[in-house]
Design brief:
By secondary structure, the protein is α+β, with helices and mostly antiparallel strands. The chain contains 31 helices and 11 strands. A 4-stranded antiparallel β-sheet has the order 1-2-4-3, covered by helices on one side. It has a 3-stranded antiparallel β-sheet with strand order 5-7-8.
Length: 807
């Protein structure tokens, strides 16, 4: 809403925090109204825990507030540095509660309490600040917030605030936010947080927070109880005032019994039941809980067993739950994206529910089919190519196998309807085969494809989908067995499948069919590209044609599926390489630019995906090589800088996993700057890369460090060759030799010295060192012979190592 500056108040002769609206003429009336409301709100409160206002006014059309300057850090900054102890957390919450109670007594609701709006002064005192969303209690229409308008920060909002129901705002709204701050102080994270704002709001409205003690077992039970009471969904169940909360915190600090009571088990069950009424019945029956809720009525478990055991009502309820899982719950999980902790927790909980539900599927085919579909949807989340890891793919395999087992069990009891289950079984087997092929389990994949083909062959009158599945199975067979066929045989089989796809297409366009045609084109390109030399005349032309066909076939499914967009970009990049090899540079450049544009769009839309970003980095390196070859060094510098921007994002998301990519970016920038004769800039980037390598003792990073040290030595030797005096040149050569010595020591520790001289980085370093030492000797000898220059003693001092910056 405004900018805050550190300023000197001339009349008061002290430092103040000066808050002003960003720019005159650019603020809305409602923003100015809130700014003025903040000054009135804070001025009405006199409490040592509230940031004081010294002066409010307007200068050249800009409203401003001169506020108390608090030297210290926000609670948010303090949390990032270190998680406080439970006692320290309680003391902070006590101070916040007392300050907020003073606000409430003055008739002010804060409405935006969060760790970044609470200062921790150097003397340890707590100060509440930023009343930009403050609201007077019992205010009339002069206040601009309307019902339905959501204001505040979702992770710290009370449910009534998240829903936008203005009439329900009360002191309990701020109590909830204090509880959310306490939760974060205890666990290191807010009660609800997702990458998506609306998803976070939905969690605030519908879900209970994870128990703090589950995240941090050291949290005292009483403090957890206080925290969860603040976070009750209904305002009337929270502390009714910040003063009540402060009093219970004092009781905790004084080791007295707290007033808050732990939520009894039956109440937890009731809360859960209100959100998942049907599943509550199922869970109650299976684990014999004491109380359950079905359609708003409570039953004791013994009566529930008698009344609902295998009853039609239970089956109908199970089917309702199945529909909810498949059509609503799991798609919401998929929208979270990225294998986030929240997504993994939700997937794990859903799998637990599905495993319990399986106990009731024997007599209910509809429920079994819903559970099978639910497992399949979970597998799709786990196998998302944008977040693919071996662990996630293995989890997806397990989920698909659960789906398959359910269909196989159903088939055993289906009688005459058993034939109808062959097609879904075949589809799951094909998906399993594709995953196992990705995991390198080709023998397992072959068995699954063979079984799928048998099932599809046993369908008396296959529909269009069954025919498409048959074509997919045949494509996978060629893909998995291509080494057993000659190149020509593979191509003939693929071409036959292409013809069959064309026949199937006559009955209507289908994105799935077009994607299969694209995969067949890619397979044919692979076969031609890897065939024995001389097997195919004009092989580059054939590869180009097949890749171009694949790009064209991807066009239709790419309109609906971002994963296909990614595949299309990969294919464009590959075709660009082939065309560049065939001296068709202009077409290659155009295709590569299209690929980069697609990949950048994906990276911006799904920034959490390392797979997308890594592909983009590869494409940028491809463009960089072309720009250096031209050469167009200004364009190359821009490309290298974009490469660094994306690699830095990767590195910050996971320094251990993506350290090498960030190092490579610095190396590429160093290469470009070296070509531009910007040796100082090149040296800066190499030093950054060396620093990153020094901070990781792994064998791989040590090998990279040795190579970087050699590159730095080369740069030192080259950088001042033309423009330095003899003493300067000698000093640079000495430094370069010192870095080469360090590089050689690392190579020797890694036992790479025994590799052949033509291939070993070790011997390259030895050769360079010999070359530089020879030049040094020649320079010294020439200088002594001419008698023109006396070499200063400091020139021969050992060089200083590359300085390491503090991480």
């Amino acid at each position: 809403m405004g900018c805050v500056y550190l300023a000197q108040h001339l009349d008061l002769e002290r430092l103040v925090a000066l808050k002003v609206v960003a720019a005159a003429g650019t603020t809305s009336p409602s923003l100015l109204s809130r700014f003025r409301e903040e000054s009135r709100a804070v001025a009405a409160v006199t409490h040592p825990g509230v940031c004081h206002i010294y002066e409010a006014g307007e200068s050249k059309g800009l409203p401003y507030l001169a506020m108390e300057y608090v030297e210290g850090v926000t609670l948010s900054e303090a949390l990032r540095a270190q998680l406080p102890s439970p006692t320290e957390s309680a003391k902070s919450i006590l101070a916040i509660s007392e300050a907020i109670e003073a606000c409430h007594q003055a008739g002010i609701l804060h409405r935006d309490l969060k760790p970044s709006n609470v200062m921790q002064a150097k003397n340890g005192h707590i100060k509440v600040m930023d009343f930009g969303l403050a609201k007077r209690l019992h205010a009339g229409d002069e206040h601009k917030t309307q019902t339905g308008e959501i204001i505040g920060t979702p992770s710290y909002m009370a449910p009534e605030q998240a829903s936008g129901v203005v009439k329900q705002f009360s002191p309990a709204t701020d109590v909830y936010a204090i509880g959310a701050i306490l939760y974060e102080l205890l666990t290191g994270r807010p009660p609800f947080q997702t990458p998506d704002l609306m998803q976070t709001i939905m969690l605030v409205l519908t879900e209970e927070p994870i128990s703090p003690r589950k995240l941090q077992p050291r949290v005292p039970v009483d403090l957890e109880t206080i925290c969860l009471k603040c976070l009750e969904k209904k305002p009337q169940k929270r502390y009714q005032s910040a003063a009540d909360l402060a009093e219970d915190i004092r009781r905790f600090l004084d080791h007295r019994p707290v007033e808050a009571r732990r939520t009894p088990f039956w109440e937890k069950s009731w809360k859960w039941a209100r959100r998942h009424p049907v599943y509550t019945v199922l869970a109650t029956v299976s684990v014999l809980t004491l109380i359950a809720a079905v359609l708003g009525v409570s039953f004791h478990v013994e009566r529930l067993e008698v009344a609902l055991n295998r009853s039609e009502r239970l089956f109908q309820g199970s089917q309702e739950l199945g529909r909810w899982l498949v059509n609503e719950h799991i798609p919401q999980i998929a929208r979270l994206r990225g294998g986030s902790t929240q997504q993994e927790e939700l997937v794990s909980k859903t799998l637990e529910h599905l495993q319990r539900l399986e106990q009731d599927v024997a007599a209910d085919r509809t429920l079994a089919e819903y559970i099978a579909q639910a497992y399949m949807r979970i597998a799709e989340i786990q196998s998302d190519p944008f977040f693919a890891t071996d662990v996630r793919l293995q989890q997806a395999v397990e989920s698909y196998r659960n789906t398959l087992q359910l269909y196989e069990d159903l088939e055993q009891h289906a009688g005459a309807d058993a034939v109808s289950l062959r097609q879904p079984r075949a589809e799951i087997l094909i998906r399993l085969a594709q995953l196992n092929q990705q995991l390198g389990e080709n023998s397992v994949a072959r068995k699954e494809v063979h079984k799928a083909s048998e099932l599809l062959a046993g369908i008396p009158q296959p529909d269009r989908n069954a025919r498409l599945l048959t074509l997919k199975a045949d494509w996978l067979t060629v893909l998995l067995d291509r080494e057993q066929f000659s190149s020509q045989d593979c191509l003939d089989r693929c071409q036959k499948l292409m013809t069959q796809c064309g026949e199937l297409k006559k009955s209507g366009d289908d994105p799935a069919l077009a994607e299969l045609q694209a995969q067949l084109s890619l397979l044919m390109a692979d076969v031609v590209e890897t065939s024995q030399p001389g097997t195919f005349a004009n092989s580059l032309r054939l590869v180009s044609e097949h890749l171009a066909d694949a790009i064209s076939y991807f066009e239709e499914p790419a309109q609906q599926d971002l994963h296909v967009v990614w595949q299309q970009a990969q294919t464009r990049s590959r075709l660009a390489q082939v065309l560049a090899t065939d001296n068709q540079q202009k077409k290659a450049d155009q295709l590569l630019e299209q690929a980069i544009e697609q990949q950048q769009s994906l990276a911006n839309e799904i920034p959490e995906s390392p797979v997308i970003t890594l592909s983009l980095l590869k494409f940028l390196e491809q463009r960089l090589a072309l720009e250096i070859a031209v050469p167009d060094l200004d364009a190359a510098l821009q490309t290298a800088q974009v490469h660094q921007q994306f690699s830095e994002k990767l590195f910050l998301s996971n320094p251990k996993e993506f350290r090498e990519q960030f190092q490579r970016s610095h190396g590429l920038l160093a290469d470009v700057q070296r070509l531009r004769f910007r040796y100082d800039a090149a040296a800066d980037h190499l030093r950054e890369a060396i620093e990153l390598a020094r901070n990781d003792g792994s064998r791989q990073q040590q090998a990279i460090l040795a190579g970087l040290l050699r590159a730095y030595a080369e740069l030192l030797a080259e950088g001042d060759r033309q423009h330095s005096t003899v003493p300067e040149r000698l000093k640079s050569l000495q430094q370069a030799v010192a870095f080469l010595n360090e590089s050689l020591e690392i190579y020797e520790k890694l036992e790479t010295a025994t590799q052949s001289p033509s291939e070993s980085p070790y011997w390259k370093s030895v050769a360079l060192k010999h070359q530089l030492e020879t030049e040094m000797e020649q320079l010294k000898l020439r200088t002594l012979e001419r008698g023109r220059t006396t070499i200063p003693p400091e020139t021969l001092d050992a060089p200083k190592p590359v300085q390491q910056k503090q991480q």
